């Protein structure tokens, strides 16, 4: 004869697992899935360069390169002048719901004619347009930029800030139209490696993290109808941005990426 109290416990446990199992599984998939290395540590396979003044696919001046297992942005073949040749290195796929993690650092000196704001400045461009859809002389893709800044040796200079080329976002229910918004991160001087992670949930929430700490949060990424580049996209793209490309910036200061990896999230 079965042990009725024990049987009752087993049945209740099975019922509980049936009810909450899918939710637990989904949460586990969000937090403990497999990170995908977007950068393989050997070459630029899977990545597409787009540098101002050059068509997509042309890596002018060997700007983006892999050396010693590190993805590097360099300007030693620029003839000593940047000449506003802003560049971006795009991953081949588009993504919608994901976490992206990058380990980066700034090295060396900026090219002398680089803009002052670009000193120790790079970025992760998310929810971006495709490199092929950019015009030949377009500076930046329409995107959400997670701005990466290094300290200049003195003073405060946060990283994982938000900049919005051709886009707007919403914070605390208010449409944010200013170009850049600072995060609450600390300042990272010198050439230390810094880990930035971003949680992207389609056209809803985007969260920035630095060394594990939440430093900025916003919602409703959207095209700016007053921006010329965004205007070109609006006839064929919804205003709220739910997916897009990922790219790494080249803005006149050398920068290195030790890792660029992605974790897909459930919608």
Characterize the structure shown.
The chain has 267 residues and is mostly beta strands. It has 2 domains: 1-32; 36-264, Jelly Rolls, CATH 2.60.120. 13% of the residues lie in helices and 37% in strands. The protein is built from 2 helices and 17 strands. The strands form 2 sheets. Strands 1, 3, 4, 6, 10, 11, 13, 14, 15 and 17 form a 10-stranded antiparallel beta sheet that branches. A 7-stranded antiparallel beta sheet has the order 2-5-16-7-8-9-12, with no helix packed on it. The longest helix is centred in the N-terminal third of the chain and has 29 residues, at 4-32. The protein is globular and about 45 Å long.
Give the CATH topology of the largest domain: Jelly Rolls
Which CATH top level class of the largest domain fits?
Mainly Beta
Please indicate the count of domains. Answer: 2
CATH architecture of the largest domain: Sandwich
Number of DSSP E strands: 17
In which range does the helix fraction lie?
A: 10-25%
| Distance from first to last alpha carbon | 47 Å
Summarize the helix and strand pattern as letters: HEEEEEEEEEEEEEEEHEE
- Output the structural class: mainly beta
Strand content: 35-45%
| Rg, Cα atoms, Å | 21 Å
The fourth-level CATH homologous superfamily of the largest domain is: Exo-inulinase, domain 1
Number of continuous helical runs: 2
Low-confidence stretches: 1-32
- What is the general shape? globular
What is the average of the pLDDT values? Answer: 91
> For the report, how would you describe the main beta sheet?
10 strands, antiparallel
